[in-house]
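Re: beginner question about structure tokens

> Can someone show what the tokenized structure looks like for a real chain? I only ever see the sequence side.

Sure, here's an example I had lying around. Input first:
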Amino acid sequence: MMLETERLILRKWTQDDAESLFTYAKNPKVGPIAGWPPHKDIESSKYVIDNVFTGAECYAICEKENNVAIGAVELKLNGHTDMTDRDDECELGYWLGEPFWGRGYMPEAAYALMKRGFETLEMTTIWCGYYDGNKKSKRVQEKLGFIYHHTCDEVPVPLLNEIRVGHTNVITKEQWKSHTQPDGKIHVANIEEV
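And the corresponding structure tokens:
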């Protein structure tokens, strides 16, 4: 399974991606803000590919010109998320390597997967969250049309052995349709860079 956008390819992870995953996931600015520790070595990245990036709707984000993994985007289906226990709802998760911040890649990739979620997988609702202080993730969700749902003051972050404040947003299929232009693009005046 592969999805294409104007600039990106979303495809399944393979062990061949371990080196590029390590390159971006070792950066302490990337993982901790999303709730996971920086990768210590390529073996850590190989483990993540084999044991974490295995969801049915988990994709490597790659630039079209080189097909190198620079981030991840996933729809976490029922049984793989704590945000819902319904089969027609899921959770959107994502991260992107720091050199690619500010190019609008994350909204572009996430939108493609949301479109798949609503149109192909027949989801009625997609949930998404971010930890307090993660302004980039908050902005991506705003651009995609997510609406604030609630805040939880004590969210366990087990991979970092922390408790954080977490914000949860939601979008229904109907809301998503009204946020999308007829040409399939996200309905915002300008997708400014994230």
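Each token stands for a local structural state, so reading them left to right follows the chain. Residues 115 and 184 are 9 Å apart (CA to CA).
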